[in-house]
Design goal:
The structure is a single chain. With about 250 residues, this protein is α/β, with parallel strands linked by helices. Helix content is about 30%, strand content about 25%. The protein has seven helices and 15 strands. It is globular. The two termini are about 15 Å apart.
Length: about 250
C-alpha cells in the first residue's frame, strides 16, 4: 500500500483536494481549491470533482477519500442541510467513481476531521474514547473508540433543555445573540457535561474556526475529560478523507 493517498473535502463554498502523506498526516503537494457551484447539484459537483482530480497526476485507479457535509450510509447521502436538496439518496461514492475513474471512500466531514485529529493531531496517542466537536454554523461531531470510527453521530442535535444543542451552543448562536465568551462558555459547559455523562470521553477536541480563539473560552470549562483545540483545522477534512482510504484497504 502506498503511503500517499488523495483526500477531497466538499464544502458549501469550496471543494478542496490534495495528496496526503499518510505517514505524517500532511499534504504531499499544494492543495487545489475550486469554488462550489452556486447550484450545487450532484452533476455540477461531479464535474468539479473531475476537474479537481484531473489537475493532479494520480496513479491510475488510486483510491480517493471524500469528506462530505452530511450523514453517509455506505457511500450514500442520507440527508442534506448545506447543499442542494437533490443530494438526498445520491450514491456519492458511485458518482465520484464515474466522474474521476478512481475507486472512492466517502465519509461525513466531521468524521473525517475526527480521524485526522486522532491519527495526526490533538488526540494523537489517545486510544480509548475520543470525541471531536466542531463549533460553527451548527455543531458537528465525530466519535472514535479504540481508534475505530462510530460514523454519523450528529451530537449537535442532542436535545438539551428542550432544544437542539446547536441552536444554543454553536458559534452561530454566540454571534446571533451577541454573547460574550463567558456567557457562551456557560452554554458550552452545559453541552459538554451532557455529552461527557453519556460517552465518558478521554479527550474532547474542539474544532471549527472559533477554535483559533480557544484561549478565550476553553479555560472557562470544567470537565473531567481533557479538552483541547484541534490542530489540523482546515486541513483536517482532506487529511481524514485520505486516511479513510487506508482504513478501507486494511479492512
Amino acid at each position: 500500500m502506498s503511503h500517499i493517498a488523495f483526500g477531497i473535502d466538499i464544502g458549501g463554498s469550496g471543494i478542496k483536494g490534495a495528496p496526503v502523506d499518510l505517514r505524517k498526516g500532511k499534504f504531499a503537494a499544494d492543495r487545489v481549491r475550486i469554488p462550489t457551484p452556486e447550484v450545487s447539484t450532484p452533476d455540477a459537483i461531479g464535474a468539479v470533482l473531475a476537474e479537481l482530480v484531473g489537475s493532479f497526476k494520480l496513479p491510475k485507479r488510486s483510491p480517493l477519500g471524500v469528506a462530505f457535509p452530511a450523514p453517509i450510509d455506505h457511500g450514500v447521502v442520507r440527508s442534506i442541510a448545506n447543499l442542494d436538496k437533490s443530494w438526498a439518496g445520491v450514491d456519492l461514492a458511485a458518482l465520484t467513481r464515474e466522474a474521476t475513474g478512481h475507486p472512492t471512500v466517502v465519509l461525513n466531514d466531521a468524521d473525517a476531521a475526527g480521524l485526522a485529529e486522532q491519527r495526526y493531531g490533538a488526540a494523537r496517542g489517545r486510544h480509548r474514547v475520543v470525541l471531536l466537536v466542531t463549533l460553527g454554523t451548527g455543531i458537528g461531531s465525530a466519535l472514535l473508540v479504540d481508534g475505530a470510527l462510530a460514523p454519523n453521530t450528529e451530537l449537535g442535535h442532542l436535545q438539551i433543555d428542550g432544544a437542539d444543542a446547536e441552536l444554543r451552543a454553536a458559534d452561530s448562536a454566540r454571534e446571533r445573540e451577541g454573547l460574550d465568551m463567558a456567557a457562551w462558555a456557560g452554554r458550552l459547559q452545559r453541552y459538554f457535561e451532557t455529552v461527557e455523562a453519556l460517552l465518558s470521553p478521554e479527550v474532547i477536541v474542539v474544532g471549527g474556526g472559533i477554535s483559533k480563539k480557544h484561549a478565550e473560552f476553553l479555560p472557562l470549562l470544567n470537565l473531567r475529560a481533557k479538552i483541547v483545540p484541534a490542530k489540523l483545522r482546515n486541513a483536517a477534512g482532506i487529511v481524514g478523507a485520505a486516511a479513510a482510504t487506508a482504513i478501507r484497504e486494511a479492512g
